[in-house]
Amino acid sequence: MTTTWSIREVPVSQTTDAPEAWLLHGYTGAMNDCLLAAWGHRDFERTATEILGSMHDQTYESKPRLVAVADDAHDAPDPDRVLGYAMINLPLQDNTHTGHVEVGVRPPYRRQGVGSALFDAGLALVRDAGRSQVTASTDQHTEPPEGPGTLAATTGAGRVAVDEDGPRFLLARGFALEQVDRYSVFDLPFDPELIAKHHAEAEAHAGPDYRLVTWQSHVPEEWVDEYALLNTRMSTDAPLGGLDLEEDVWEAERIRTYEKQYEERGLPLLVLAAEHVPTHTLAAFTCFMPIPNSDEFVHQTDTLVLKEHRGKRLGMLVKTANLQRLAAERPAVRRVGTWNAEENSYMLAINVALGFRPAGGSGEWQLKLS
Ligand SMILES: CC(C)(COP(=O)(O)OP(=O)(O)OC[C@H]1O[C@@H](n2cnc3c(N)ncnc32)[C@H](O)[C@@H]1OP(=O)(O)O)[C@@H](O)C(=O)NCCC(=O)NCCS
């Protein structure tokens, strides 16, 4: 039987138990079904509270969320009626030339036109906002070896399989594969002697000019401007492949806005930075983000060493120190997951030396709009 559906916008409700929040629960459920189908594990599972917290803060990005809802004569408020979702992000401060669209359809409802309808509705919002390009991502459980049926990123580093649903969908719409990211996982508990050895070597190399500073979630006032600068530099110092993105400027006010957003979403940030003592500035940082629904998994989010401080093993220094801190503060953690551009050989080399293992990745796609 053919299902008919309508596209609706997810309302930004006050709370997750508001009557209209059934669409938010359907959106969350559809996204989690797609994540489980793509990865075969629940480490990326999202919660409605965390998603709604993100929707509540649209200071720096506009975030329309769409769902395809199976038609029903009584319009029952049943989250299972949601067949698929579209997440649209439109930057409002920098990068206002671009928009990001992510579409997912619950596996039993694929190949009926639901994904196309959601994508078209998302693209219309990107065009209406005056954007000249759109980006999208596809997940892959394993990166395919070189050979027929694969497509390399325009950087030459990394590949995707062209016959997978996501790449086929985006290629049919004219997208170019501008970058491939590697997803890597580090298993805990780790060998404390090995991490201590890497740490001691990095410390000896860095010398006495660097001192470690840590905080959780709320950056001390003393460091907020420096931390904002690190975040700005993160937007351009990490490789962007062929993606046409410009510097994304952070300042203290933006840091504080995101701190409030992350608090509402139940996402702590375990930041560890290296101070360059002679200049009282921050030279490097790294961050873990635990998730609300499991004590076993954390994301390793940003890691950056400023260009002017590279070559001193500060990347290894901050990463080993934050792993030691993680083991001490959150002994239940069993896995750390991290994403790196395939062409980011310096960061990947550090991760491989520490014991991160490849566990899939993503394709990063871009389409210029005429
Ligand atoms: C990619 C994805 C969103 C497509 O969703 P979908 O609902 O299957 O999309 P559609 O049905 O509109 O189109 C997919 C295919 O079904 C075909 N199709 C559409 N209507 C059809 C119908 N009534 N009968 C048979 N086939 C149909 C389309 O022609 C298309 O075929 P193709 O891949 O050979 O070109 C879905 O596979 C998915 O959720 N994948 C995981 C997430 C992802 O990769 N997202 C893409 C990046 S944002």
Q: Can you give a write-up of this model?
A:
By secondary structure, the chain is of the alpha+beta class. The protein has two domains: 5-183, 3-Layer(aba) Sandwich (Aminopeptidase), CATH 3.40.630; 189-333, Aminopeptidase, CATH 3.40.630.30. The protein has helices at 22-39, 48-56, 114-128, 165-172, 192-206, 224-237, 252-265, 314-329, 345-354; strands at residues 5-9, 61-62, 65-70, 82-91, 98-105, 133-140, 150-152, 159-161, 176-187, 210-216, 270-276, 281-291, 294-305, 335-341, 357-368. The strands form two sheets. Strands 1, 2, 3, 4, 5, 6, 9, 10, 11, 12, 13, 14 and 15 form a 13-stranded mixed β-sheet that branches. A two-stranded antiparallel sheet has the order 7-8. Strand 13 (294-305), helix 8 and strand 14 (335-341) form a beta-alpha-beta unit. Helix 5 (192-206) runs antiparallel to helix 8. The chain is globular, with a radius of gyration of 21 Å. The two termini are 38 Å apart. The mean pLDDT is 96.
Break the fold down into its secondary structure elements and pairings.
Layout: E1 5-9, H1 22-39, H2 48-56, E2 61-62, E3 65-70, E4 82-91, E5 98-105, H3 114-128, E6 133-140, E7 150-152, E8 159-161, H4 165-172, E9 176-187, H5 192-206, E10 210-216, H6 224-237, H7 252-265, E11 270-276, E12 281-291, E13 294-305, H8 314-329, E14 335-341, H9 345-354, E15 357-368
Parallel strand pairs: 5-6, 13-14
Antiparallel strand pairs: 1-3, 2-4, 3-4, 4-5, 6-15, 7-8, 9-14, 9-15, 10-11, 11-12, 12-13
Helix pairs in contact: 2-7, 5-8
Bound molecules: coenzyme A.
Coenzyme A is lined by residues 34, 102-105, 110-116, 136, 138, 165-166, 168-170, 172.
